[in-house]
Amino acid sequence: EQGQVINEVARNCYNVAASKGWHENDANKTDLQLVETFVANCHAEVSELWEAARGGKLHKPCDKADKMEELGITPLTCLQEELADIVIRVFDFSASIGVNIASAIDRKSSFNATRPHRHGGKLA
User: Fold this and answer.
1) What is the pTM of this model?
2) Cβ-contact 92, 17 below 8 angstroms
3) Phi, psi of 61 (to 5 degrees)
């Protein structure tokens, strides 16, 4: 099922991050501190995407492309890398705090389907 796959990917994102030491002190942090770190890191990834767009680099190889190629990984563009980083941050965080992200996505998408066109007239 799609939801199981999404949650498995989220757990994998968490496991990779944890294996690199990124969750070592989570048990000593409050929910607020965990959210603060997540938001700051997510903001950084969104800002990196914006900077790539501003610099006309969205479709150019990312700064890790050469290393990826050496490892036999198909290199990413800046757009691909930053979008992946944003999703990885969301999946890692959701798994780290026990949120069933697949269920949350499904329920929020179902709600969004009931909303009016442009949510009642929003411009952007």
Assistant:
1) 0.92
2) yes
3) -60, 140
Beta bridge partners of 77: 61
For residue 44, CA distances in Å to 86, 104, 105, 116 come to: 9, 23, 23, 32
Length of the chain, in residues: 124
Residue 100 reports pLDDT greater than 90: yes
Q: In the beta sheet, which residues pair with residue 61? A: 77
Query: Whole-angstrom Cα distance, residue 22 to residue 91?
Result: 14
Residue type at position 1: E
Retrieve residue 92's tokens.
């890692």
Model confidence over 43-73: pLDDT tens digits?
Answer: 999 999 999 999 999 999 999 999 999 999 9
